[in-house]
Design goal:
This protein is of the alpha/beta class. 25% of the residues lie in helices and 32% in strands.
Amino acid sequence: MTQEITLTTGIYDLIKDLIRRKKVTLQEEERLIAQLKNAKQVVRASLPLDVVTVDAKVTVKNLINNQEEVYTFVAPARAKRRNNTESIVGSMGLALVGCKTGDVVKWHFGEEEKQFEITNVERIA
């Protein structure tokens, strides 16, 4: 069963464009298409504060090794390793975008499946 996610219209369109231009793996494409079918679209002002989106600092707990990791997601053009920011449409961004605090997310990263629990979402802009 696919998890229901909440996306802004802009992020929804961005993900659709990635799929259309074949910028994701086949496995990611299948998962994203299924998620988009069940996604709730809202305008940015109506997006709940605990939902992963652009300009959000997200803390996740890796349920396989129990380690906490923090990601700061930004628009693709603003993502820079030296600033410790990640594109919302990078592998981790696509795995978490639209999910909310408390959600458990399973996602394939290459050949490896990882499982995360979102423990905190904080807007940075």
